[in-house]
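Worked example

This section walks through a single chain of length 464. The input is the sequence exactly as stored; nothing has been trimmed or padded.
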Amino acid sequence: MYSMQAQEGNLGELTVVGGGLAGCEAAWQAAERGIQVTLYEMRPARMTGAHVSGDLAELVCSNSLGSNLPDRASGLLKDELRRLGSRLLACAESAALPAGGALAVDRQAFAASVTRSLQNHPNIHLVRAEVHTIPEGPVIIASGPLTSPDLAAALARLSGESNLFFYDAIAPIISASSIDMAIAFRASRYRKGVQADGDYINCPLEQAQYENFVQALSLAERIPLKDFELEVENGVRAGLSAFFEGCLPVEVLARRELKALAFGPMRPVGLRDPRTGRRPYAVVQLRQDNLAGDVYNLVGFQTNLTYAEQKKVFRMIPGLETAEFIRYGQMHRNTFMASPRLLNPTLQVRGRDDLFLAGQLIGVEGYMGNIATGLLAGMNAARYLHGMAPIELPGVTLLGALCHYVTQADMRDFQPMKANYGILPPLPADLRMGKRERAQAYRERSLAELDRIIQAEHLVEVKS
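Given that input, the structure is written out below as tokens.
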């Protein structure tokens, strides 16, 4: 067992536990502010059930970091992070792939860039070892949804209650050369994208094909679930455990009602099949997963089907009849804390100002939310060490609203939350505007307030 006590003299001024998105952004932000950081990552010595490498900032579920469009909440959050100097966002944009209005990355190139930058940073010492307890002194815990059992138990003791759990799922990845392009076609919704012929490969389905596919998907064999998982899926909350509604397995959606997928991940809006000139009844979109363009993932097709059933059922999709699966989908347990009872909006643990939590562990969902909370935790930990007051971002900013939600939500129905306009304070009631105009008003209000705080607090002025 690795002993934190034995290494106490070498911890540096700040310890960061977890080399995922939040932990890497936090370590980088603090290091750029002159803090000596010791970053702990247990991989590859101890792997999780979802990771495949020892790289820092490995993307597990998808290679998409969400929309880049200025009228989307994800686009606004990225603009806030650009203003705040996010290092990981810059790495992601350097590894970007064609993805319409979204920011998708080559997973390996992105992770390699982050790993290389942190390993070579003069103020960061990377330790490849598992942390079993919460370290003493200034520390950021960003161990993520796959926190090891010992550390999860220590966090549970800290909060005085059991952890909360939900189950997340990963979509399959297939070889591009195995897609039948005589049936599938390239296009982006509403012709938005980088490539002239479209950034996505689309597999169109007529109504009969769709209904047969949904029926087969609904009946397909799944990897057996534990008793309390089955209770939650059937609508009974076992304590505070739940599937995350925003990342349900595709077979769970298929069982809800016949048209659930056609209005969800298989919606055909903004697309026309060039063979017919018509919009398909439904469509399965495939998104490029690496720079070479030789592998694609099935967008929105997180699954817990057995591998044999995935091969059989997903090959019913037109154009994927001979699909070669590079990685099958899978489900894994995610851990998140009772943050409304534990954290302040500065991401400090109540009663212990030198302990910060960040990332998916605190109930923030989505890659950009993880990066964003890591940025704020790293910034505030550095301010704490420099004897400065921590920053509590106002709720009119998307990052501020996200931190306020996870630290002040009602525990009775607390679930992980992605950045969305619904968590922002409402605009004046007398404003009459459409959806796009309202998004623009949110954006202008947020960025104006963020710019004011950046200037007043010198937030992006780092100390070398």
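What to look for: Residues 69 and 75 are 5 Å apart (CA to CA).
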